[in-house]
Amino acid sequence: MFENHSLDTLKGVGPKQLDKLNKLGLFHIQDLLLHLPLRYQDKTRLLAIEALIPGMEAQTEGTIISQAMTRGGRNSLLITLQSNQGALLSLRFFHYHPRQAQSFNRGKRLRVYGEVRMGLHNLEMVHPTYQFIQEQNPPALDTTLTPVYPTTEGLGQATLTKLIHQALHHLKAQPLAELLPESLLRAYSLPTLSQAILTLHQPQASDDLVAIKQFRHPAQQRLILEELISQQIGLQKLRQQEQQRLAPAFAPSHKVNALFASLPFTLTCAQNRVLDEIQQDLAQAQPMQRLVQGDVGSGKTVVAAIAAIQAADAGYQVAIMAPTEILAEQHLQAFREWLEPLDIKVTWLNGRMKTAEKRDILAQIRCGEAKVIVGTHALFQDAVNFHQLGLVIIDEQHRFGVHQRLTLQQKGQKMVLEGDNEPNLDPANKACLAMHPHQLIMTATPIPRTLAMTAYGDLDLSIIDELPPGRKPIETAVINNQKREEVMAHLYARCQEGVQAYWVCPLIEESEVLHAQAAEVTANLFCETWPDLRVGLVHGRLKGEQKAAVMQAFKHHELDLLVATTVIEVGVNVPNASLMIIENAERLGLAQLHQLRGRVGRGEKQSHCVLLYQAPLSATGKARLQIMRESNDGFRIAEEDLKIRGPGEILGTRQTGGLQFRIADLQRDAHWIALARQVSAELLAQDSNLVNALQARWIGHRADYQTA
Ligand code: ADP
Ligand code: MG
């Protein structure tokens, strides 16, 4: 089967080129066939120079009347073409070979293709593609559009195109295996795979080019559907694999009742429901794989703590991972407060511990003395070896990647193998005996359903869709930054009444230094204007202990105002804080604003949020802030954010872990996801060869994370 041949079986591919192709993710001939054009050039038509309009991409012809080197800002080679009617077009080259420059002799005729723009004196094209032609005997125009492929440095468009031509030549002789059921193709009027590939690499003038441009063409839809199906297969397989693994089963723990008795509140119905789901999972001998979604402030931490109690009481270790040190430290406190009265020891591990202290804690983790361990991604490090890891809790999952999650999961397995005292078992049997920890993943980023199906298709989903009673929706105002001083004065007055407030200075430049400075300047301004106001400052450049000390002081109301950068975005919990000002709100994503705003509205007091913006606001900018004003509903905000920013941003790092598609786009193609999920389940149940072939075709070398 030619499609599985390595690319160096094609003419003209040596080791160097193979390397370049591999860099593009292209390994087999099939990969080339699925390497679709970014766009197309229309060289089926020839326009006269006088018909060119700035902004268009076009093909034209003319005779060289001059050639010059220009100096100044950037040296360039400037060629001027003239049409038969006398119109002029300049061609500008910033990079060129001296021999190339010499070839542009006056009087020669050129056919060029490029984007037309307004030059200094006449229209010009920068780095057009060109060919010398004879006026009497011009080459024929193309009959198909010219594809433009995504490529990489050192691998020219022409080379790639030639290789793809070779691949298409094979394809025409021998179509690719059709892996989708014929009934499916018929039901949706979709072409076969080979037809679809041919159409997209070599569209004819009669094809619906507008539809192709808009990704609506059946040829594209066909490939998108197949790719989404193969992705769903990957997720469902991952899930099946996980379900075949063994995990320690945890019986209900009476210590949980003791916790309930000590809590100053009772759980909401939603918390209880989700807790039930978790406890049922934990009682199984298969690893739990559960994602808990709950809007900011819905009370996910206490639910996680109860799961931790159940695991710890059964003698297993629990790892809790938070995305920032501030948050890890806060979890440490909450867990200590809840768990230590129950005789469950809570330790923590952070990146800035002194060597001796760290060694000590690592030893405690290794021997199992440390039961509940809170930390940041430091918990992923190789040096951390657990004795008997039974439960992994990952908070604010959107900040972590899928790889990190899998690494921690594997740690559970590794421990069992190493601690195994049956040296005579062969490795395969040992792997069967290996226990996998249960996994609880929590996120406050509400993920629209279709996206959740794709990004988290391997997980069970629980939703805490209720806030603890007594919470009043945060009132949000959108205010022009010109009124900054009034807002500051208002904040001061409120703090005089006992309110605690946050003032958030988001990233303005992509620089941690400037970022910290902005917060510093604001904090100083408050101190100078109102010396009796107790102001604290946190930003990413402070040392961990300093950060922790400031947070602690704020929590204990030793500070009235906390000026912060977006380091406080996730999870920080100070219920008495009820006023938040966010500067440059127009620059932040909606989900991020919602996260930030969720730092207030955590107590019984009516909370307020002020979004300061820098005028002028664009129409979308206005609409976005309007949504924040109208809604406290994370789901609605996430839907809007998805529309505006696309799925990559919302899913954060997770997308680098396997959500890279060749053709599909989760947002644009969301309407296929439910079908893809259904078809993949059917295929998985019916035909494992087909399923493997689909995965090999689409995921091939990218499948690493799925087998990890
Ligand atoms: P998030 O879901 O954003 O992580 P937290 O777990 O930090 O929210 O909880 C927010 C606050 O609500 C905490 O102070 C927590 O103790 C409190 N809380 C949690 N559950 C309840 C409840 N059922 N009733 C009242 N307060 C609760
Ligand atoms: Mg939280």
User: Would you count the extended β strands for me?
Assistant: 21
Strand order of the largest sheet: 11-12-10-13-14-9-15
Dominant shape: globular
Q: What number of structural domains do the residues give?
A: 4
User: What is the CATH topology of the largest domain?
Assistant: Rossmann fold
Approximately how much beta-strand content do the residues carry? Answer: 15-25%
Ligands bound here? adenosine-5'-diphosphate, magnesium ion
Number of helices: 26
Descriptive account of the structure:
- The protein folds into four domains: 2-40 and 148-214, no CATH class; 45-141, Nucleic acid-binding proteins (OB fold (Dihydrolipoamide Acetyltransferase, E2P)), CATH 2.40.50.140; 255-420 and 429-464, P-loop containing nucleotide triphosphate hydrolases (Rossmann fold); 475-631, Rossmann fold, CATH 3.40.50.300.
- Helices cover 41% and strands 17% of the residues.
- It is built from 26 helices and 21 strands.
- The strands form four sheets. Strands 11-12-10-13-14-9-15 form a seven-stranded parallel β-sheet, sandwiched between helices. The chain has a six-stranded parallel β-sheet with strand order 16-21-20-17-19-18, with helices on both faces.
- It starts with 14 loop residues before the first helix and ends with a helix.
- Residues 300-301, 395, 571 line the site of magnesium ion.
